[in-house]
Amino acid sequence: MRERWMVYAKRADFYDIGEKFNIDPVVARVIRNRDIEDYEDIDKYLNGTDLSGYDVTLMKDMDKGCQIMMDKINQGKSIRIVSDYDVDGIMSNYILYDALKVAGADISYEIPDRMLDGYGINERIIEDAHTDGVDTIITCDNGIAAFPAIELAKDYGMTVIVTDHHEVPFDIDKNGNKHYRMVPADAVIDIKQEDCNYPFKEICGATVAYKFIKRLYELMGLAWEDNDKYIEMVGLATVCDIMVLQDENRIFVKRALQIIKDTDNIGLKALLIANGLTDRKITAYDFGFVLGPCFNATGRLESAKVGLSLLLCEDEEKALREAESIREINTERKSMTEDGTKKAIEIVEEGLKDDNILVVFVPELHESLAGIVAGRLKEKYYRPTLVFTDGNDNLLKGSGRSIDGYNMFEELSKCRDLFVKFGGHEMAAGFTIKKDNFDRLRKSLLDTQKLSDDDLTYKVHIDVAMPFSYISEKLINDLDKLEPFGNGNSKPLFAQSNVSVVGLRLMGKDGQFGRLTLQDETGNRIEAMDFRINNFIESIKLWFGEQECDRMLDGQPNNIRINIAYHPVINVYNGRNYIQLRPDRYQKHTQEE
User: Fold this and answer.
1) 235 SS3 class
2) What is the sign, positive or negative, of the torsion defined by CA atoms of 376, 382, 385, 389?
3) For labelling, which of 140, 145, 230, 409 has a CA lying 20 to 30 Å from the CA of 193?
4) pTM for this prediction
5) pLDDT at residue 140, as a whole number
6) How far apart are CA 118 and CA 273, in angstroms?
7) What's the pLDDT band for 171 if we cut at 50, 70, 90?
8) Could you say which DSSP state residue 194 is in?
9) Do the Cβ atoms of 563 and 593 come closer than 8 Å?
10) Residue 283: count of CB within 10 angstroms of its CB
C-alpha cells in the first residue's frame, strides 16, 4: 500500500483558543484540524451535553408516522417491527420494541436471517406477518429500498412506516441525471431524502428510532422520565455503524460512554461482565471492537434475535449465560475471519494485486464475513474491494468496502442490471449477483473506474509535527478531552522525524510486543510500546538490512533512522505515571527530508 504523510496546515489563533477553553495550543490545533473553527462549535465539541439535538419535526414524515403509530396503538392493532441484523438494527429494534410496549402497543418483532433472507425486509417476512394478522409494519435501519416487500404489504392492506438512514435508491439516465425512487409506504422517515429538512444527515438507524419514540411519547402525552433512556443503545449503534463522531452523534456517544457501566439493561451489563469491561474506563474502541462485534456475531453465525433477546432479558443469571455464549460466538467468528482473510489475500496476490478495484471470489468463506474480509483487504491494499462468496441457487453474495474518492453506491448503480439485489452507501455496499455475471461485473468496474495514483495513495494526516520534549502529562490529559475518537473525529496523530532506535526489548510470551527506546535529533529520549513489533522488525530488515537490525536487537549502536507517527499516552506502573508513545506507523528517514 502506498502512503503519503501530510501535516495539516489549517490556520487559527491557537493561543487564543487555548486560553479561552483552558487547553494546550496544540490541542486547539487538533480541534481546528477537525474543521471545528467557530468558538460556539468548539464549546459544543468540548462541552456539549444537550441530548435533545435538533428539532425532530424537521424530519420529513416524522409527525405523520408518529400520528399513524399513535392511532394504531389506540385502536389495539397488531404492530410488527422489522430491523436489520447488525448492531444498528438490533439496537433500533430494541428501542422501538421496549418503548412501544410501554406505550401500550400490541407489538412483536422480526429480524431477517442473514443466510436465508439477506438484508432487509422481504416478501417472506410480509407473508408471515399477513398470516399472523399483523396490521402495521414499522421498519428500522432498513426499508428505504424494499420495493417488492412494501408493495406486497400494501397489496395485503397493511400500513407501513419506514424509518431508515440509508441512501434513497435512484436511477441514472443517459445524461447522468439521478431520478430518486420512493417506496410506497404510508410514512417514510429517512434523513437522506432530498426534501427532508433535518440539518444533520449522518445519524444511524437507532438514532432515527430513538427520535421517533421521543416524538411519539410527546404526542401521546407520555412522560419521558429518564433523560438517558436508550442512550447506551444509540451510542453503541452510532459507533458500530461508523457514523461520524461529530455534532449530535458526538454528544450521544460521549454520554453513552459515561453511563454504560451503570446501565439498567441487564443484558448489556452481563455483556460488559463477560468481556471483562467492568473494571476500567469504557472507550469508543470498546464499543466498536469488543461489544459491537458480539452483537454482530449473533447475526453472522446464528441469529440476530439472540442479541436482541439478551437486551430484553430480565433475569440476571440467564443474561450472564447468554452473554457468555455470545462472547464465544464472537470468538469463533474471529477465527473464521482470520482464515478467510488469509485465503482472500492469497487470491489477490496470485493475480489481482495490480487491479485498481479488487473484485474477489472466496468460495469457502462464510457469506456473513464477506464485509469484514472486504474491509481487511481494503486496509491492506487501499483499493475499493468487493468480496463474493457462494450463495444458493447459482447466486453469489457479497459485500464491498470503499476508499475516499470512490462512491461505491453510485458506481454499482451504473451496473444495476448485473445485480439481483444491492444496496448501501458511498463507503460500503451489500449485493447478490448471478454467478454468470461475476466476470462481467469485474470487467465493467475495472473498465469504468477513473482512480488515479493519488486516489490510491493512503493519506496519513499528521496533526502536528511535535518533538518529544513538548509531550507532557497536561498535554495528554487535554487531548483526552477530545474523546470519543472514531470516524470524523480521529485520534490525534503526531510525528517526529530522524529518530534513532537506541534500544528494543521484546516482551510477551512469544515476543510479540516491543518496548522501544527512541531518541530524537536533540538527544531527548522516550519510551514507546509497540504491540505489533514483528511488523516493525520486518520493516527495519527491509530498509536497513539484517546486520543493522541485529545491532538494534542487541542494543548496539546502529545507523537506523526512522520517522514515527504516534499517539502519546500515560502508562501507570506500580502507582507511578510514565509518558509513553504508542506508534501508529513508521517510515525510513532519508536525508532529503
Assistant:
1) helix
2) negative
3) 230
4) 0.90
5) 98
6) 32
7) confident
8) T
9) yes
10) 17
Spatial strand order in the sheet of 136-140 = 106-110, 78-83, 136-140, 159-164, 187-190
Give which of 456, 445, 476 is closest to 383, Cα–Cα: 456
Nearest to 163 by CA among 220, 226, 205: 205
Q: Residues 84, 142: contact at Cβ < 8 Å?
A: yes
Domains of the chain: 3-10+459-588 (2.40.50.140), 56-226 (3.90.1640.30), 352-448 (3.10.310.30)
Q: How far is CA 42 from its chain centroid?
A: 24
Q: What is the pLDDT of residue 110?
A: 98
Beta partners for residue 562, in sequence order = 499, 588
Task: Please give the angle made by the CA atoms of 364, 367 and 372, to the nearest 5 degrees.
Answer: 105
Task: Report the C-alpha gap between 528 and 501 in whole angstroms.
Answer: 10
At 380, list the grid cell: 491492506
Output the nine-digit C-alpha cell for 447. 473498465
Q: In terms of DSSP bridges, do strands 395-401 and 419-424 run parallel, antiparallel, or are they unpaired?
A: unpaired
The three cell numbers locating residue 136: 402495521
* Tens-place pLDDT, residues 290-349: 999 999 999 888 899 999 999 999 999 999 999 999 999 999 999 999 999 999 999 999
DSSP assignment string, 481-514: TTPSPBTTBPPP-EEEEEEEEEEEEEESTTS-EE
Q: DSSP H helical segments within 241-315, as ranges? A: 247-259, 266-274, 284-286, 292-301, 304-312
- At residue 574, the pLDDT reads 82
Helix or strand holding residue 348 (H, E):
helix 316-351
Query: What are the beta bridge partners of residue 586?
Result: 564
Residue 369 DSSP one-character state = G
Q: How far apart are CA 132 and CA 509, in angstroms?
A: 57
**Best CA proximity match to 267, nearest among 332, 227, 327, 214:** 327
What is the Cα–Cα distance from 441 to 439, expressed in whole angstroms? Answer: 5
d(CA 539, CA 525): 22
For 381-403, what is each residue's pLDDT tens digit?
999 999 999 977 889 999 999 99
DSSP code per residue over 388-456: EEE-STTEEEEEEE--TT--HHHHHHTTGGGEEEEEE-SSEEEEEEEGGGHHHHHHHHHHH----TTTT
C-beta separation of 210 from 95 below 8 A: yes
pLDDT band at 593 (very low <50, low <70, confident <90, very high): low
Rounded distance between C-alpha atoms, residue 465 and residue 494, angstroms: 6
Confidence label for 592 from pLDDT (cuts 50, 70 and 90): low
Q: Residue 422: is its pLDDT beyond 90?
A: no
Q: What gap in Å lies between CA 41 and CA 25, rounded to an integer? A: 17
Which one-letter amino acid corresponds to residue 60? K
pLDDT of residue 573: 80
Going along 130-207, which residue ranges are E strands?
A: 136-140, 159-164, 170-172, 178-180, 187-190
* Angle between the N-to-C axes of helices 247-259 and 231-240, in degrees from 0 to 180, rounded to the nearest 10: 120
Task: Say how far residue 170 (Cα) sits from the centre of its chain.
Answer: 25
The beta-carbon contacts of 542-547 under 8 Å, at least 24 apart in sequence, are 543/588, 544/588
Q: Are the CB atoms for 469 and 475 separated by under 8 Å?
A: no
CB 447 within 8 A of CB 418: no
DSSP for residue 61: T
